[in-house]
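Pipeline run #58 for the internal structure catalog. This entry was flagged by the ingest filter as a single-chain record with no existing model, so it goes straight to prediction. Upstream metadata was stripped on purpose; only the residue string is passed forward. Reviewer on rotation: M.T. Logging verbosity set to normal.
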Amino acid sequence: MTIAITGATGFVGQVLLDRALAEGHELRALTRRHQPLRLGLDWVRGDLDDKPALKRLVRGAEAVIHVAGVVNSPDPAEFERGNVVGTLNVVEAALAAGVPRFICVSSLSAREPDLSTYGASKARAERLVMASPLDWTVVRPPWIYGPGDRDTLDMFKAARWGLMPMPPREGRSSLLHVDDLARLLLALVPGGEGITHQVFEPDDGHPDGWSHYEVGRAIGWAMGRRPWVIHLSRKSLERAARGDMALRRHKAKLTLDRVGYMTHPDWVVSHGARPPADLWEPRIATREGLKATAQWYKDNGWL
């Protein structure tokens, strides 16, 4: 099967690319810069604003997996441009090319669009996909982690020193290993009854998600430590976000927009929204996945 992929050079996209090639798919992937040649993969130079590149990307494809998007930015306009307009451009290209299948990677944050600009942009992107005549499926991942993830890296660094700052105590979140997400995206490609025109919220299968305290201790365990978990209030997180933006500017990992959804108490996947068990189930237990991620960070010099 020929699959067109956006966001293939990002954290999730790279894992998806490797798994899709291992399964024998022919791939076409969008990239802004030169990439090494790989058997079965055709790189297309361009981005989500480049309509001619998108046309080349989807031509002859049997499915599009749209992963690309803006996850973090101090500029709210970037979310609109990358997540909303970018999705619209990919949808229009897929429609014009007659692509029979479209899988959109959204975010659990789209469930609460009033909490953040990011979540609002993902919700608008979902509506564009759902309003189209495409044979679509939307996937809303929760907190994704795994080897190569830069967003969670700071938490592993903190755990190394025995101190784990976390959002308020009352919050809970679902987690999912990146490889399990990649397996799901490929399992959805054929579509079919109960799959098409559905919104799925996958997770690791941990009942009722994880408390922030449990996540902090699990990351500490993965680092061989028993960290002191400190729950920060919204005001404390906002101060920390301003400090991070002043220090790292556009590379800041903690922004005021992120604080908006980090302090929401319920990021557990919705009951009944998990993918069908006969199609997909998570394979990687989160504690072991976090431990393997910590080892990957160490082996690759990130810690």
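catalog note: The longest helix spans residues 76-97.
catalog note: The chain has ten helices and 14 strands.
status: ready for reviewer M.T.
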